[in-house]
Amino acid sequence: MASTAVEIPDPFQSLSAICREPFWNGTRSWASEEPEIGACMERTVLVWVPCLLLWAFGLPRLAQLRRRPSDPGPWTPPLGLKVFFTAIMLATAVIQLAWAAAAGEERVPPAEFIAGAVLLATYILCMVLILMGRRKSEQNSEILLLYWLFSLICNLPQIYAFFNGSNGRIQGVPYAVAVTFVVQFLCNVALFLVSCFKDAPAARKELDASVKPSPLLRASLSSRLFFWWATPLVWRGWRRPLTSDDLWDIEPRNSASTLAVQWDDAVNRGKRPNLPEYKTQRKARYERVTTPGNKVSILACIWRLARAAFFGSLGLYSVSEGLRFLTPRLLSLIIKFTEEDEEPVWHGYLYAVSLFLSCSASSLLKNIYSFRMSVLSTRVKSVLMTAVYRKALSLSGTARRNASLGEIVNLMSVDAQVVGRVFGPICSLLISPVIIVFSIIFLWQELGASVLAGVTVLALLMPLTSFLANRIKVLQQANMEFRDRRVKIMNEIVSGIKVLKLYAWEGAFSSMVDKIRKKEMNLLQKVAFCRALNSFLSGTSPYTVALATFTTYLLASPENILDVEKAFVSVSLFNIMKLPICRLPIIISDVIQAIVAFKRIEKFIHAEELDPTAVCQDHSEANAIVIRGGKFTWAGDEGQASWELNDINLEVGHGKLVAVVGCVGAGKSSLISALLGEMRKTKGKVVVNGSVAYVSQQAWLQNATLRDNIIWSQPFDEKRYRQVVTACALQQDLDMLPGGDMTEVGEKGINLSGGQKQRVSLARAVYSAADIFLFDDPLSSVDAHVGRFIFDNVIGSKGILKNKTRLLVTHAVTFLPRVDEVIVLKDGQMVEKGSYNELVAKQGDFANFVQRHQNEDAEEDTESELKLSSPGPYYHQVSSESHKSSVDNERWLSLLSAKNNNNEKEDKEDEKEKLRSMADAAGKTTTKQKLVQEEKSETGKVSRHVYLTYGKSMGLLYAVVPLVFIVLGQTSLVSSNVWLSKYSFSSAGESGDANTTTSNFVVTREVFLLGYGAFGVAQALFLFLGTLSLMQGCLRASRVLHQRLLQSVVRLPMSFFDTNPSGRIINRFSKEISILDINLPDIVCTSFDRFVQVVATIVMIIVALPAAGFFVAPIMVLYYLVQMFYIASSRQLKRIESVSRSPVYSHFSETLQGVSIIRAFKKQQEFYEESLRKIDFSLESVYTNYAVNRWAQGNLEIIGHLITFATALVGVVGRGHVGASLVGLALSYALSVTGVLEFLVRITADMEANIVSVERINDYLEREQEAAWTSEGVLAAWPQEGRVSFRNFQMRYRPDLDLILKGITCSFEPAEKVGIVGRTGAGKSSLTLALFRLIEGAGGEIDIDKVNIANVGLHDLRGRISILPQDPVLFSGTLRINLDPLGACSDADLWNALELAHLADYVREQPLGLSHVVDEGGANISVGQRQLVCLARALLRKSRILVLDEATAAVDLETDDLIQATIRSQFAHCTVLTIAHRLNTIMDSDRVLVLDQGKIAEFAPPAVLLADPDSVFYGMAKDAGLV
Hints:
The protein has 54 helices and 21 strands. By secondary structure, it is an alpha/beta fold. The strands form five sheets. It has a six-stranded mixed sheet with strand order 5-6-7-3-8-9, sandwiched between helices. The protein has a six-stranded mixed sheet with strand order 15-18-19-12-20-21. Strands 11-10-13-14 form a four-stranded antiparallel sheet, covered by helices on one side. Helix 5 packs antiparallel against helix 8 (142-164). The relative contact order is 0.08.
């Protein structure tokens, strides 16, 4: 050894010279019984390197801090400790340097002097960085933290040598100086620990912070690395259920508004798209960022936005995976150590510690990568959701027809998420081949060319897995189309549920959903089989590769011995290769799924938009509205005729009032749409000079307070507001509502009558103070006399809009003499234009039309003038207009559990005082009065009942059999490893390498390979059968739960739909069912597999090394505690996430329904910002859940590595007593236990988080439902006469509320025509609801032909009564389906009904006739035509009882006459009940029923009642000007 040292020159002569001893003696250091580095290295390299790194990074950082503006932070205890300990370090460095200088070169080598000088200069730099950081408000220096950590590690050898006495340098040092080395080390430890905590922010930063800033913003580097900043939330979540108030605000850089700005930059190819919010200071704008026709690449935009984060994450993932290759090498060293008694003991400990540190470092980096990737995925999802919403605000009519509401919601809820999370699979796709290649290289080193056999098997399996992945892609793409169709129909069912219940069509539309669901499930079954087969191939491929490699290796040469080291190092490498091989098909499938979703999003974002240049402002024009040579079209789909406006020439001067008239389908509403830019302009010029306010024919309101719906985000002007409310005839309504103008308006205005909704819509337009007002027949939904009042005080020449430009579409001839000009449309063309007198003088079609209705108008002209100061008559007139739409006012009062205690007339008082009293009433409104309640989430553990519900849906067979198969599969896997261990041990004994007695277990190579292969086949077969059967069971549960959910929802009472937004209900059918279809099968399969795997792993470790059990048991307890903390928080966060999603989709649905109004008022920016806020709120729980997940994974993996460390230590300590094969077997399982245990905890949390979907579905399954649809004993011909009798009938809306109908007793004779009238809240609509049993009675009974309807099935009842509702509702599909979804009528019957409904000519014009496609909501048919379709429905039913609810409000007077004639002729044999909104419509009734406060006030022929001046009906008729 000495001669060798002399022969080899010292490569570190200069360092050896300044130390006066050899710098490094590797042989001596490694071979020594105690670890020793040497004094020279301790005082040179280990001192210099950390200091040089600090200088290299600290000086640039110091320069950056100097350029910052001063913003001193407060003095805090951590900061004081940093300064204190750094000062002590300075003092110790000064002492060491002084001692070295005083002792001289003779006694002290130059290395000591240099070390002291370097440390002194470095500590001064540390002090400067600390103080400068405080002055410039740097809360913590990550550079200093890393320096203290690196310095601490480098000082460990010196401290060990100091206390061990192995360092001769210390012996000549004075005691006081020697102590400084220990003090330095202790101060180093203290500074490292203190630096792990961040200082308090400066005052300016504190002011800029949000209300609940994320602790990540203030977390130190160590806290960020280990996610300790999430610990307080996890602790809080364990102590009590978390709520949304506990969540942090989203980081500014991740907010939807910041990302929207970055998206715009990316679309515009900005150079810096990733600037955070505090640097951009820009507001997210709605305006389009590309020019029409310039289709930017969405993929390129996403890439520009995500590339920096993606490459950073890819780097972390690469290093993390690279560290895993240290594991086989260290395993090899530990196995060799247990086989050789001569190797120093400290080597074994070093190997064990190195194994623990390498695994921990890999896990740490992987954890950070996962968090960054999750954040990146959510950022992309947020961007895409924002882009979809913004696109929806500008979609053209044609594009909107091609994208239903359900499809667009799916783009936001599912597709955006699928595209967002693709970056993780892409990283894996890039790194997995590299991992496989390096695994093969290292296997080559162990087993030589035999590894090529395994590579060949792998190459043969790849095409098959690729084929399966491609097949899965095709099936998933087809499945998405079915899912969209299903959600679309469900959205229509929920939106039109009242119509479905009234017509008893729930079953027909449910069957449509069931048919689509059946096709969807067939595809999902195929996907499940392909995925199970793919999992089978990918899961067994590592084993197959190992078997092929071992077989080739052993049979290639008798000299090839598969000893313990080769066997388990190879198994370790195969395990490393296993994950990328297993995940590769899944990764490919995820990427393919993302491509499909991306194409859908890209298709939507590239869809046609409204042309922003179609309508322009041109101040050179003298008029407010100008159309010259205009040609506009509603482009129809294939098989549909496109509808056009031709040769339109229109000029409306400033301040003019112009009326537009025409028959149904003439193009009146289309003309308004053309002026708004909603209709495609193919020719001509459209000029609109000024801001626009638009009142649509069908009112659209938001789920907000009534006042908010009127002022619509404008500043509140009390005087203007009071004037508008009074002029729009809303004051009386506000006085009656429980919260005044602060009353909440339900979704789609569900709790307001049709007239109230229209008047609120009108008030919104008037309050906007626009220049131009476009009215699309707003007065058709209100009482004629209230309409006259509104015309006089709002629209007419004396109204508050008298100086504004007004374009009024109307069917009311009454108003035409009072307008400046009348435009007559027919078949999409302007046939006449001029003043009223001019058109009458022409004696054309218009004059004939007016003449026919002159008598009716003359009758209405006798109406007494309304006085604003006279609330008495006005009250009667508003009372006569009790539109019920969905829920009338008396129902609203009951739903809010509030009573109107002030029935007396108000005295005349100051209007301002009246407004204040309204505000006071609103202030007293309690949460009990809130109509649409906040969605509640469960708390605590998921109930066992939920798991039982899911299990029962699967079925006992599918729940038990898969578990048996999976246990058998894991048993086969364990047996194969034991078989390998015993064989390798016996092989090692034969070769003389074992240090223990040779085992009696001796088998030939052929027998070993046969057994190893048999175990592999058994494992593959059992796991495949287990996975397939479990997936089939999960899909069965999904099918059963969806079917039960569908059946439950359509059977829920109407009160449920009144108080739950449609978005909330649709969320159950889209997101929750999607989780049951896609997520839960994987989670359940993985949970079963991992649970059995964990049990097998722990048992094998303890069986192989019983002493390891003493360590494993407490570690498992620690595991359980972390799991308990984690799951409590994760479960609740998932619930909060589920609840917070609904407002996003509800707002989105609400926006799409009112998009034309939003665009008309130019409110896109405000709605866009509101959407951004809701997206941020919904993602708060998502980001928080990511942090909690990473906190759990980081802690669990470190704890798991302790099992590996403990197993390695037991093997090291037991050297000579424990066989190498057992150590190898135990370590191979211990290395896998970390991932398995961590994955089990995470998958358990995922199970609880995703089973919440079952919980939310089960919530709807357990709601109280309506009565049975059918009942026995109902005659097929019932009712034969149509006699309706009420006997002391009572009704209330909820058990805890007062009666709304109080002892109604009356009878309607067969074929009798009865008008039902009463003031608002009298109970008219409640009577209708009771007749259809939409609300059940509380007492008494209703008989139809002497049969108590309470004993009749709902469908038996509703299917034999007809109704013409005020709001016509159509469903997407064919016209045939809208007329007869049950398929009970022949084509001849359908055409006959269309003829009688005066709609046959229109249908014949369509190329497809009865198969004419109806868009969602009937958007491609005018409102009047929709009402005619409803008339045709009633004609087809041929019922003995007909209920009319102002069914002709939306049609012109000529069509009204035709409809009335049809009703009189075709329903002459029917009992007709007319809910009167206009008293003149029921003057020819046989009898009139007058209701007052839920009781019958009068019931007699109208002539008798009018003859009595004291009757209530006479007073109402007098107020209406009819007498």
